[in-house]
Design goal:
By secondary structure, the chain is mainly α. It has one domain: DnaA protein, C-terminal DNA-binding domain (Chromosomal Replication Initiator Protein Dnaa, Chain: A). It is 76% helix and 0% strand. It is globular.
């Protein structure tokens, strides 16, 4: 079972620089936000709020920014523009999430979220073609 997950993640990493990047950036943001909102069980409107909100929501937003960078190959500046945050805020979020990846359960959860985002983006690309 775990071998299948590793294989899926390798496939995602192989394809993630091409296919998902084709999505318009606003749609790419929506894909990431929907997946993260469901995974963290936070309301989408809270995730999109301009202010920080509760710690759980702020962390979910940081994960969304991290996944936009990782899954779509966006620069930190592009992620900042996409989420209307400063590049340094995105860099801070990236560092916090990377630090949490030392936890194997959290790391696996992020891998699965990345796979979900890439698959959903690829499906949307297929529908638009």
């Amino acid at each position: 079972m775990q071998g299948e997950g590793v294989q899926q993640l390798q496939e995602v990493r192989r394809c993630s620089k091409k296919a998902p990047r084709i999505l318009p950036l606003r749609l790419a943001r929506s894909v990431v936000e929907l997946v993260v909102a469901m995974a963290f069980q936070v309301p989408l409107r809270e995730l999109r709020a301009r202010t920080r909100r509760r710690a759980q929501i702020a962390f979910a937003r940081q994960v969304a920014m991290y996944l936009a960078h990782v899954a779509y190959g966006l620069t930190l500046t592009e992620v900042g523009n996409l989420f209307t945050r400063d590049r340094t805020t995105v860099a801070h979020a990236f560092g916090l999430v990377e630090d949490r990846r030392d936890d194997p359960l959290f790391d696996t959860a992020l891998d699965h979220l990345e796979i979900s985002i890439v698959r959903l983006a690829n499906a949307l690309n297929t529908l638009e073609s």
